[in-house]
Write a structure and sequence with these properties.
This protein has 134 residues and is mainly beta. 5% of the residues lie in helices and 45% in strands. It has a single domain (4-116), classed as Metal Binding Protein, Guanine Nucleotide Exchange Factor, Chain A, CATH 2.170.150. It has one helix at residues 32-38, and strands at residues 4-9, 16-21, 24-29, 43-49, 53-57, 62-67, 70-75, 81-86, 92-96, 106-112. It is globular and about 40 Å long. 26% of the residues are buried.
């Protein structure tokens, strides 16, 4: 399968990005940082090689928030969480699946950091669950 280009954007439309992928490896993260940053039970992330991700509009609106090994990117205008990089996993870019504008082929791999999941949330699908990320 050949790579295709998919577009995503923030809530206000000020920041736009493109990714190139055949399929997008994806996972649901239940760590406390993701839950708090997204205001939800978990965050759904897509993973692509860093060279396959590019800002195409509004890069000057993107703010970076670093916390330990994690750098998260947000729109400074509307606050949308857009993506992140993990220093211990160089060469990869993680983007928030909720910001995709195009229907892309997603390949959900697993739930991660389930030991930290919200106590009120029940995982009801058959994806593998990892207490941590390996």
């Amino acid at each position: 399968m050949a790579k295709k280009t998919y577009q995503g954007s923030c809530l206000c439309g000020g920041v736009v990005y493109e990714i190139e992928a055949e399929t997008i490896e994806s996972h649901h993260c239940h760590c406390q940082r993701c839950r708090k940053a997204h205001g939800a039970a978990y965050a759904s992330w897509g993973e692509v090689p860093e060279e396959d991700f590019r800002w195409t509009q509004g890069e000057d609106l993107v703010i970076e928030n670093k916390y330990v090994e994690l750098a998260r990117f947000f729109c400074s205008r509307c606050g949308s969480p857009l993506g992140g990089k993990i220093s211990t996993m160089p060469g990869k870019f993680y983007f928030t699946l909720g910001t995709l504008d195009d229907r892309a082929p997603l390949e959900f791999k697993e739930h991660i950091f389930t030991a930290h999941k919200a106590p009120w949330h029940e995982i009801a699908d058959s994806l593998p669950q990892r207490n941590e990320y390996e």
